[in-house]
């Protein structure tokens, strides 16, 4: 802890006490923000983990069907069939605010693929793969938004934690130590003034007694 460069006066002491109260209030608000950030970070991280597992399962099903389709008709025939296929989709981006933090969100919507490949020269597994890929698209978009949100919350949490640490470990202790020092200095001055005043009164009383 270090003493602040403040003159040991009553006005300086009053100003320091006001600044200490402001710093303590700021710390309380930052601590509340830190707790909210921790809760939101854990909640959204859990959501992202669950969605990541679900997305992985669907992608695994899609690639398994794709491999079966390759075994059914061969990769060359499958590639030729896929060239003529297209699927419309829409992606939208939005933001929500949490304590001044911009948190991104993404959503995607794909058209219903249905049966796209012909009955001959292709495989039903190709349609199964396409259905699975269409199913995973909105999940992947939502997962991307959640992962980005988790990163932003973690970054803001680190900043808030650093500010809390600075206030609780350095700024507030320095204010308190300086206030104790100035209070002690002023009390010592008051005692000295009282002693000097008492000595003056005693001398005046003695002088009056001698004159009388």
Describe the protein.
With 212 residues, the chain is mostly helical. The protein has a single domain (10-205), classed as Helix Hairpins (Orthogonal Bundle). It is 76% helix and 9% strand. It contains three helices and two strands, in the order ααββα. It has helices at residues 10-73, 75-83, 124-211, and strands at residues 89-98, 101-110. It has a two-stranded antiparallel ribbon with strand order 1-2. The longest helix has 88 residues, at 124-211.
Keywords:
212 residues, mainly alpha, Helix Hairpins, two-stranded antiparallel sheet, 3 helices, 2 strands, 76% helix
**What shape does the CA trace take?**
rod-shaped
Measured between the Cα atoms of the first and last residue, the distance is 58 Å
* Biggest beta sheet attributes: 2 strands, antiparallel
Strand order of the largest sheet: 1-2
Number of strands: 2
CATH-assigned fold name = Helix Hairpins
Outline:
This protein has 212 residues and is mostly helical. The protein has three helices and two strands. It is rod-shaped, with a radius of gyration of 37 Å.
Please give the structural blueprint.
Blueprint: H1 10-73, H2 75-83, E1 89-98, E2 101-110, H3 124-211
């Amino acid at each position: 802890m270090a003493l602040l460069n403040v003159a040991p006066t009553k006005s300086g002491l009053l100003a320091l006490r006001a600044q200490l109260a402001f710093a303590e209030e700021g710390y309380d608000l930052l601590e509340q923000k830190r707790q909210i950030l921790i809760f939101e970070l854990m909640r959204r991280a859990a959501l992202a983990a669950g969605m990541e597992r679900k997305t992985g399962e669907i992608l695994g099903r899609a690639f398994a069907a794709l491999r079966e389709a390759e075994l059914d008709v061969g990769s060359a025939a499958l590639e030729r069939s896929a060239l003529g296929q297209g699927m419309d989709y829409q992606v939208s981006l939005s933001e929500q605010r949490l304590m001044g933090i911009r948190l991104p969100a993404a959503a995607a919507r794909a058209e219903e693929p249905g049966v796209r490949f012909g009955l001959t020269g292709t495989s039903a597994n190709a349609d199964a793969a396409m259905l699975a890929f269409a199913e995973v698209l909105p999940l992947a978009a939502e997962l991307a938004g959640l992962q980005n949100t988790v990163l932003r919350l973690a970054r803001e949490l680190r900043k808030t934690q650093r500010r809390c640490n600075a206030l609780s470990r350095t700024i507030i202790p320095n204010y308190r130590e300086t206030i104790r020092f100035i209070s002690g200095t002023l009390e010592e001055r008051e005692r000295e003034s009282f002693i000097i005043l008492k000595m003056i009164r005693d001398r005046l009383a003695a002088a009056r007694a001698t004159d009388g």
